[in-house]
Amino acid sequence: MTSGSTQAHAPTPSIPGELKIIQDATCTFCGCVCDDIELTVKDDHIIEAKRACILGKSWFLNHSVEDRPSCTIDGNPASLEQGYDRAAQILTHGKYPIVYGLSDSPCEAQRVAVSIVDWISGTIDTTTSVCHGPSGMAFQGVGEVTCSLGEVANRGDMIMFWGSNPAESHPRHFTKYSLMPKGMFLPNGRKDRTCVIVDVRRTKSAKAADIFIQIKPKKDFEALWTLRALAKGIELDPELVLRETGVEFSVWSDLMDRMKACKFGVIFFGMGLTMTRGKHVNSEALLALTRDMNAHTRFVAKPNRGHGNVTGADNVVSWRTGYPFGVNHARGYPRFNPGEYTTSDTLANREADCAMMIACDPMANFSQPAREHLATIPYIALDTKETPTTRSAAVAFAVATYGINTGGTVYRMDDVPIPLRPAFASPHPSDYDVLTAIEVRVKKILGIT
Amino acid sequence: MTSPDYTKISQGIVYDPRNGVDGEVRDLWILDGRIVDSPADSSVRASRTIDATGLVVMPGGIDMHCHIAGPKVNVARKMRPEEKRRGEQMPRTSITHSGSMGSVPSTFATGYKYAALGYTTAFDAAIPPIAARHAHEEFEDTPCIDKGFYVLMGNNHYVMQSLMKNEPHKLKAFIAWLLTSTKGFAPKLVNPGGVEVWKSKQAGNVSGLDTKVDHFGVTPRQIICGVAQAAAELALPHPVHIHCNNLGMPGNWETTLETMRALNGYRGHITHIQFHSYGGGNGDENTFNSKVIPLVEYVNSHPNITVDVGQVLFGETTSMTGDGPLGYFLSKVYGGKWFSSDTEMESGCGITPIKYRNKSLVHALQWAIGLEWYLLVKDPWQVVMSTDHPNGGSFLAYPQIIRFLMDKTYRRDVLKTCPPAILERSSLWEIDREYTLNEIAIITRAGPAKILGLNDKGHLGAGADADITIYTPHENKEVMFEMPRVVIKSGRVLVEQGEIRETLIGKTLHVQPNYDLEVETDIQEWFEKYYSIQWRNYPVDLSYLYESCVIPTRRGS
Questions:
Q1: Is ipTM strictly over 0.90?
Q2: A431 lies within 8 A of chain B by CB
Q3: Which residue from A164, A274, A419, B473 has the fewest beta carbons nearer than 10 Å?
């Protein structure tokens, strides 16, 4: 397989002391994937990132190429060739190899990772399984009524956020897509929109809301079900509603009146919904409510995705295997079972006997049983920086940063694919390069032509 | 000097309708991926000879309307895990990737299955321009076949705006710019105007060709006529591919007829016409009936019109469409999970699982109406085999459809299993026609190649791509067509008797017609006002195409 887009979009060479301007660069820090950033580069440092938010500025301006070996084996510097060989040996010797991460790699690299898993009959999983995996499962239950972010900007006159705090997690969400833009059918921008935020705590986003509704913790499902009942005109006991949701019945009933009266409603939801009690059932309730609302007006829902290319990972794994995450190939063909083939489970259940961690840090953020098991098995780690996961890896690769040093494709949270325009070259290989080299060796060991 | 590396297919029974060859025993010579004249020097030997004595040789099949790549297809894959563990599994081999089946196979599985069926080219029928990059990425992972896609533009704001302002030169430049920017193949209209109305209000849609689209004040008729004219002036190889308004609605045949008339004599292709040939009204199942006859009369007397059928087959599948309001309608009929997505400035999308049952009068009629179309169009060059994969059924059902067409006894046996009322509501029982192999070769390869303006495909003359399928004759035509003896793509033997021998990635077919570059400033101004991505990040560059193949316009440029 070739991957033209990674190769074609290498950064232009820098001339010492001169300023280089990169127009329409793409920020891969969060799922907003803003592609209107103007970068000023001097001596392989980004000195300005126009239009980037506070997180984006930090992403671009603090980026420096780490002065460490591109490859270490058992903590000792090694050549890339030695690293590729060792990595291929580890992956082909295991009985239950797992590959995890992917959400901060371009699609071109993700595709190679899925190929490797296919050849080694391994298990592939992405960080989706620990963020919006429940939304993916809910989606398989009820579907989803959704739209691209430009539709929100042009038509959305009622914007709701549920268990999501974009002011801190997606700082340009309000200004670029959801609240402030003057859209085709909303010429006055913010004035033409109503913003409702539902959360268990008063987040920094709350002050952007016209209506803020603070519900009882762990009662998202009950709150959503209340709205579903109201949408369908089912009579409810106000006291029960108050007791279960922590919010007066009249507030819900007023909200439903507004939802029915708007022209184009949007509910963005976050991990405050998907990772609290109920998980995929919560997401399912929200998706079902959105669907129900289409009997009254137009209404859509959209998960606020976190990582820059987690949406690309969902897409790549789906088009190659038919399933979005948690895919096992032990029988030679893909099988899907979240809770069994998802990485926190294959580790905590002590099933995986080798691993490759791509742009993720399970040693920092997985459960203790999962971390303990990972520490006992040989694994490969690819990351742009040193992390607890790279430090304990049998083979660690320091890789170039996508969108800053390397090109490729990322999918915005609304599935819109966007090309990357890198700023300057890195001495480290890209994750695409590393994975491709490993794939060549894996195929050779396994006798695959 | 070494002699050229020829491959020879010797003594096959050749069906090459484009060149007037109807079942004659011939040798075919292949060099560098193309068919060539037999060498003048009779002492030249081929490096490889495939003995096709007694076997049927045809050009590789061409599927001109299917859904195999891009956002809608991939959402359907994600949404339907429940249907994949039943039935066939696709394990990896030493030369092929694994994959999954179900009604929407994964990319690799799609490529292998098409090749194993003797199909060497396929066109995805509905790509939103902003997601063109996604479709190209999937194409690179869909091996063994050449691919292209049609670009959704029947609800594009710039298209409607230039019609509203009566600026045909801008419309023409925009169509060419959009096809070039997306590396697409042809303009596609899906429920023209109706999807825009769906985006703007509850259960919104247009009701017929003369309903005005909210905000834009144009009618579906203006969109159809305007795009057909612009495409004709651009001399596009495949001018306009139309999914009519009112798909699936009883009584929609009148809309379909009006659509044909709206073409004003310009060339146009009406797709999955089976879904648009219904009589009856008011959503009343009891009035539902076939209106193929009046529509086919119009097609028979208008050579500017071609159709593909969108055959329905009994069983479970996934409905997927760029027709947002249709998706909503179907989700209410079937009550299952429903996906809908509106794409800014451009298009919509609807997906829902669906099951066609032979005991349902409506479904049985849909099945019969499809077959009526194949059997009543007089000139087989005007009708193309399709299931609108996966909407009517899988492309894997093509051999069964061939049997329906070539074997009237089999056809009638299946008809007998349907509700008897079907006999009064369609003419299928009375039709005696049986297709010949030559006619099958027309509706599955030669015809689509001609309709698509592909001069190097769909035939076996010198200069054609060496995409060739060799079948073992069998009395049961389903058996004959479901497992070709040999499938050759670009001169390479990819499949023998269902086994993949070698893989390749295949070419991407696209167009780049000339246009007035000055209009680009106007397009950019419009684009930057309302799109959520940057102007420079919108066009797909050539690096996304594994192998680019530009198909010239009908003027040859």
A1: yes
A2: no
A3: B473
